[in-house]
Structures are given as C-alpha cells and as structure tokens.
From TrEMBL:
GO terms for molecular function: 4 iron, 4 sulfur cluster binding; cyclic pyranopterin monophosphate synthase activity; GTP 3',8'-cyclase activity; metal ion binding. This is GTP 3',8-cyclase. GO terms for biological process: Mo-molybdopterin cofactor biosynthetic process. The keyword Plastid does not apply. It comes from the Bacteria. Pfam families: Mob_synth_C, Radical_SAM. Residues 303-314 have a biased composition (Polar residues).
C-alpha cells in the first residue's frame, strides 16, 4: 500500500502518534484475548501497522498459543521482516501468513511504499513457502498503478503455492490516497486475468473468509488459486463475524465504522473480567448491518469512515 496507508500502527483515532505507554501492553492484550476466547473466539489475526516490528512479538505469539481454545493465530505482514522471523513463527505454531504485495516490480515497489524492500519481501515469501506456511498474497487493485500486473499476479498463483487475492481499493481514512479513478471492481479484475487461464469457483469459499476463491487453470493444465475480496461491489457484511482491536486498545466491531469501545480505559481503571466481557458483548451487539462504500464511491468518493487502515489493520 502507499506509504501513508501502511506504516507503524501507533496512531490515535485522530491521527496523532501514540506514546508507547498508550499502547496496550502484551499483558493487557493477552487479557483481552483470553476473555474473548472464553466468549467463543477461536481465531486471531495479528496485523497492523506492521506486527513484526513490535519488540517481543514472538514471545507474545508463544503466549497466545498457550490460551486454551484459541485454535489459530494468523498474521498479515508487509513481508519485510518475514525472512528473519519465518522459522520462529512456524515453530511457534503460526501456519497461515498473508503478505501484502501490490507490485512485482522492484522500482514500482519503491515508488508505492517509499522503501527499497522488494527483494527482502520476496526472500521472505520463498522462505515461508519452503517452511510450509499457507501463504496468501494481498494485492490491492489500483487502476493506473498495478492493473498492468494482474495477469502476472495470476500467473504467480500458477507457478507458486500462493493464493493471490485481489482486493478492491477502499476509500478509508481522511488522509487516504484513494481516488475514484483508481477504483477497479472485481468483475473487471476477473476479466483482465482471463488471459492467464480459466477460472472456476471453489465451493463455499466465502464461509472461510471474505474472499471468493477460484481455481485458475492455464492451457497447459497448471493450476493455482486466486481470490477476490470485493467489499465495495459485493459486500459481505451479512456474514461478518470480525472484531478489531487497535494497538491503542480501541475495539471496533466494523472496519468501516468509526464506533469504538475504549477497552484501554477499562483495563487501566481496574475493570473486572465481567465488565470487559460486557463491553465486548455490547460492541458486538452494536455491530452495524453494513456500510455505504458503494454510495461513497459512486458519489464524490469521500470516505465514510475516517479510520486509517494502518491503525485498524485491514
Ligand atoms: N470491508 C471489509 N474488508 C475486509 C474485511 N476483512 C478483510 N477485508 C479486506 O480484505 C483484506 C484481506 O484480509 P486479511 O485480514 O488479510 O485476510 P482474510 O482473507 O480476511 O483472512 P483469512 O481468510 O483468515 O486469511 C483486508 O486487508 C481488507 O482490505 C471486512 O470484514 N470488511
Ligand atoms: C493495513 S495492512 C497492515 C498489515 C501489514 N503492515 C501489511 O502490510 O500487511 C493490512 C492489509 O490492508 C490492506 N489494505 C490497506 N489499505 C487498503 C485499502 N485502502 N483498501 C483495501 N485494502 C487495503 C492491504 O492489502 C493489507 O494486506
Ligand atoms: S460489517 Fe464492517 S467489517 Fe464486517 S464486512 Fe461489513 S464493512 Fe467489513
């Protein structure tokens, strides 16, 4: 993602950089996760900002896996530190990794992210592949930026055991670089990758996450899988069961709705487990039915939610 949307996670709701003492400690995070697991949550994703830059992340993951009932800890990363962390992540029990990669060109990577780390990300992907991780590559589709690479990304899914997912670019956050002209809907992305092979839908893929997954087969019979995440053209809010906790301790029931519950305040004011449980339950009950992104995009293109992706985690 452009640099302004994918950086350190330590922002407040109003965009100020948070002081380290304003971040939830690992102890506080573990307490919230333990309570959520007791309430029935069984899968957790670490995202950010960049989860691998936080000191002590591996020990934290180790502790997460000790929680009874938490079956899976997954990770979404920019991949820059993946080659350094992959072995330990795998041995701790992480099996699924999503790597954000919007281009396969080194120079364009630098232009988009502001950093010259393409080779490092690639090295991390190969290392993770060799270790046996299940890897998904998140490609945010942006007209004029990476639409010329959709076929190459689809071919990557044929060549490597990576599920490549094309994500519709969402207008999120007041500082977002999103422009209406850059938006491409899933149908158009699908059409443009037909050149790489035939697509056939994988049954019930939406039951496992937001992506509609397809098997891609090229004319020599090679197969791979690609996914499409279409929050704008085919939103999936009716099946959404996610909660998001920011590093500053705010619990959000919806990626695209600015309503938040201040768990940090509760944690630091002596709240009991019961009180925290009630707040989590209430946040879930307040979950909105949907979002207005399509209207926003068809209208003036202004985001309806001011939250930054880098703070909420995608
Ligand atoms: N609007 C919206 N977009 C989402 C939602 N979940 C995921 N996305 C988009 O899809 C991207 C990929 O999501 P990830 O969290 O990496 O992975 P995932 O596919 O949701 O998770 P798994 O199925 O567990 O691998 C996010 O960065 C968002 O852009 C959601 O609930 N609402
Ligand atoms: C915000 S990043 C944070 C995690 C980590 N630093 C990384 O780069 O993967 C998480 C995901 O959000 C997605 N994302 C970011 N901005 C987006 C946008 N405007 N629309 C759709 N997806 C977006 C990216 O694909 C990325 O996989
Ligand atoms: S309810 Fe919110 S978080 Fe869930 S799918 Fe809809 S927009 Fe995404």
């Amino acid at each position: 993602m452009p640099k302004d949307e994918e950086d350190s996670a330590t922002f407040s709701k109003t965009g100020e950089i948070l002081h380290p003492s304003d971040l939830l400690s690992y102890e506080e995070l573990l307490r919230v996760v333990r309570i959520a697991v007791e309430m029935g949550m069984n899968k957790l994703r670490l995202t950010g900002g960049e989860p691998l830059v936080r000191r002590g992340i591996l020990d934290f993951i180790h502790e997460l896996f000790r929680l009874n009932g938490l079956n899976e800890v997954r990770l979404t990363t920019n991949g820059v530190l993946l080659s350094d962390y992959a072995e330990r992540l795998f041995s701790e029990g992480v099996q699924h990794i999503n790597v954000s990669l919007d281009t396969l060109h080194e120079k364009k990577f630098q232009k988009i992210t502001g950093r010259n780390y393409f080779q490092k990300v690639w090295e991390g992907l190969l290392k993770a592949r060799d270790l046996g991780f299940k890897i998904k590559i998140n490609v945010v589709a942006m007209k004029g930026i990476n639409d010329d690479e959709f076929v190459d990304f689809a071919r990557l899914a044929l060549r490597e055991p990576f599920q490549v997912r094309f994500i519709e670019f969402m207008p999120l956050g007041e500082k977002s670089s999103w422009q209406k002209e850059q938006f491409i809907k899933t149908e158009d992305i699908k059409k443009s990758i037909e050149e790489a092979g035939d697509l056939s839908p994988v049954k019930n893929s939406r039951a496992k996450g937001p992506a509609r997954v397809y098997e891609l087969t090229d004319n020599s019979g090679r197969k791979g899988t690609v996914g499409f995440i279409s929050p704008i053209s085919h939103h999936f809010c009716d099946q959404c069961n996610r909660l998001r906790l920011t590093s500053g301790g705010q619990l959000r029931s919806c990626l695209l709705n600015d309503m938040e519950t201040d768990l940090k305040g509760l944690l630091r004011n002596g709240a009991t487990d019961e009180k925290l449980r009630d707040s989590i339950r209430q946040t879930i009950l307040n979950k909105p039915k949907g979002h207005s992104l399509q209207e926003d995009c068809e209208g003036n293109g202004r985001p309806s939610c001011s939250g930054q992706m880098s703070r909420i985690g995608g």
